[in-house]
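input
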Amino acid sequence: MPFVDIKKKNVTYTIHAVTTVQPDLNLLADQVKLHLYISPNRTTPDQVFSINDTDNWKTSNSEGKNSVAFIIHGFHGAAYEPMFQNIKNAYLSKANWTVIMVDWEKPSRVARYETAVNSALIIASLLAKWISTALVNGYVDASRMHIVGFSMGAHIAGNVGKRVTGGKVAKIFALDPALPIYDKKNITERLHIDDAEFVEVIHTCGNFISFDADLGHVDFYPNGGQFPQPGCLDPRQSTQDVWGLEIITVMVCSHNIALKYFAESIYDEHKFTAVRCDSWREFQTNNCSSTTAPMGYGTTIE
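output
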């Protein structure tokens, strides 16, 4: 987890060496639940089943007629948190969508970050197997599948995409992909451009909690892609004015705001218009191309 050196105000990370001890596969499978939603604005799922259970899927997806969106939270997260529920509700506001929220809350809420990283890779393999079975049985169509992953969940999304058989996932939306440990990972174990037909990345706290480097077919950097994002810091202050836990709060707010941006883009696909540019500095000096694209749900690979 990030912390602040109060004297120097430098943000650093304390990450232990990655352990070679792997989490128990059967235990993880029992701890990961898939929350299925078909009805809009429900606070409780229409159905909950195990990541090892595909038997109920056939009767839950109108025999494969609906598009399907998987939503995956990150480290110390949970599917029931409002910021993930907002994305679920946004998808269900559109016709013919089924949403499956991947709830791996218990494995994510561990003390050691690297333990969660190891668990996340196994969970990705389990989910990929589940999706592959659904594809083979015709319960879902990969060309109408989205995987939305936040923070560590973005890398789970990528690792799922790598491992799915029977079709290639249409879109992965990676929301502020986690940086610690993953910046040292090979592309076989983290998000990569080849993990889906289209990979979109939204960066909001780059170089601190999340990646700043391009990872997808399209990478968006709202407000420069770093903290503080608008609304996360008192406008009368600068980052030099905040100390200790306060700066962590600003960083976490900036990290989480990627979820808000994405949810709003589902309701209004043209709410956020981005300009193609080589850097934030170039943008600030009006030295960008004339190419524009909507950030979020409405983006296309063209």
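quick obs: Helices lie at 25-31, 57-60, 82-92, 105-108, 113-136, 152-163, 244-267, 280-284.
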